[in-house]
Fold:
Amino acid sequence: MKKCKSSGKFFGMNGSKKQTALKALGTAGILGSVIGLGTLGVKFIGHFAINKVFDSFLKIITSDQYNKNLSETFFSVQRIGSQVILETELRADEAKALERPMGPARKFPNLDDLKFNFAQINTLPTEVDTEIDFSITIGKYSKRPLQFDQFMMLAPMAYGIALSKAVKIAFAKACAAAGAVYHTGAGAPLMEVPELCNKIIFLYDRGNWPKSQETLLKSQAVEIQLGQGAYGGVGYTTKADLISPELRKEFRIPKEQDLITASRQPEVQNPKDLKNLVDKLRHITDGVPIGVKIAAGKYLEADLYWICSSGADFIVIDGAEAATKGSPPVLQDDFGIPTVFAIDRAAKWMEKHGYKERISLIASGNIRTPGDALKVKALGADACQIGAIALVALSHNQIHKALPFEPPTSLTWYDDKFSDQFDIETGVQSMYNFFESCKLEMAEGIRALGKTALSQVNRDDLVTTNEMYARGMNLPMVYDAFDPLDEQPPPRLKKLKL
Structure:
């Protein structure tokens, strides 16, 4: 075969090679055309491919029977719940009780169904420039009452068992800056804290490690731990091999000793023992307020009777929504009384039996916002504790260090993967901002009620959108009309002689 000079070696190829070459040229031509079309070509191919995949997927989904249909996965997750499925997988993977962090995910009856009144004309709103009095006193009849002006105080969160040293120090500095009350929590004492803030509650925990007398004597109040909302009075153990040498030294426990939190307060083996412990701590501390913390249960009032009879100066009620670093889901999801009902019941019982004037009531358990705080105040709380939401605020502008491969809490837990990357001063500023922002919003709410002090907020300021709340808490429904021309008009209208 003769070669054509203009066509090079192409016409010298055999048939199969020519076909292969022609196909290659054709493919190259197509690709070249697509590239030439640029974005339009890519978009067309993308749409074409997606459409083909979608059509195929839709055909399978709409023709396969349920027992073979992939969509059943979605409906199963929707029906059972993603968290239940996850926890089922974890239980199936290892024969041990789960330890879920950050509290229950289930929706309990909560503070959202309460609404406040608006002062308008019958009661005039407070002028915008009126300063709101936030003064609070815990243990007003104790020898050395605890006084402050930040309704939100820190909840007990333990160093070592839960939080890192940097996080606890940041909390202490932020509380000092905002005038809030810091809480030691259970766990190892931090000797630096009393030098950083001057409003400290010392948790008299149920642990088998020594209580720090130095920190106790430098605290402004003591809280006896009987129980907590996410755990009740259930004990737990941290095995010796999980305790670092550094932490063991700070706990002041010997080598190979487990950290054990007893189910019962060791010094309270029957209800009458509580008074002896309260008296002992009051004597040791020279009269600071002594309080007791419990989880709210069915027989809440019976527990309150023993606490009030002990001579305690304050009571902390932890509702069922409360969180901890880790506790069995069954205790979080299926035990306890929700915070909104627990505080309402406690305040009513204490008022009925003449304890409310003498003993302060502190609310705890999923209090997240200024509105939540103002609502528990209206129900009868003198202050509230915040835990999980405080960790969220403290971690502001820092969670990116852990995400997307680790949860944000790995920034705050002791000896966790990113705990060494937590920046104290950034945390201090964020927590301070949160405290102050909440206080400013609460002040606006108090003005909207036509009042000038936090202490003036009460249950008369509330209505509810929930009929169960109306019946159980004796609150008016939002649809209950108030007629000023009825036989008993409000005090202002009595003077008008309508």
Q: What stands out?
A: The two ends are 122 Å apart (CA to CA). The domain at 114-473 is CATH 3.20.20.70 (TIM Barrel). The mean pLDDT is 87.
